[in-house]
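Cast an eye over this sequence plus tokens and walk me through the fold:

***
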Amino acid sequence: MILSNKEIIKALDKGTIVINPRPDMPLMGKGSDPFGSMSLDLRLGGTILVPKEGQSFAFDLKRGSISGFLGNVCDRVEITTGRPYILESNKFILAHTLENVWLPIIEGKPCYAARVEGKSSFARCGLIVHFTAPTIHAGFKGTITLEMINLSANSIILHAGMYICQLIFERVEGEILQHAPSRFMGQSSPEGLA
């Protein structure tokens, strides 16, 4: 079951979905707000990882820490609303959301998972905001890493704090067997470090 905007607000009020900073309440058709009819927009954080030019290597996905590896092969760029990042045509970056998301597993209360999706208005400009692994599992806590690529022929300007993606929440049915937390639990950076 996908949550409507009213159900998302109820879950935020009850603490069964936690977003920090908490999103502004809907303005009910009076200007922009982060709530769609069944989604919640999140903003672009202030750190971007840009793969270094001219490197020759092969990703060995079975070995080592991907987080540490990305930190070594990418340049870290800090952006603000006044100092944006220009994403050139056919370039890939890693970014993250400004908001921390927590989908707590609380005994006796509803439990939720989410999917992160791009925004259609940006996709129409050639910007892919998140193109794989959209599932945010129940129990996750941290910022959401965004794998972004500009498929257009033109550069795209990215400002910190702009609404960049949307979450679609779903209620999880049944009991969850507890297991070891994800290696990205508590992440606060694009490469997945806490």
Notes: The mean pLDDT is 87. The domain at 5-55+62-172 is CATH 2.70.40.10 (Deoxyuridine 5'-Triphosphate Nucleotidohydrolase; Chain A). Helices lie at 5-14, 66-73, 120-123.
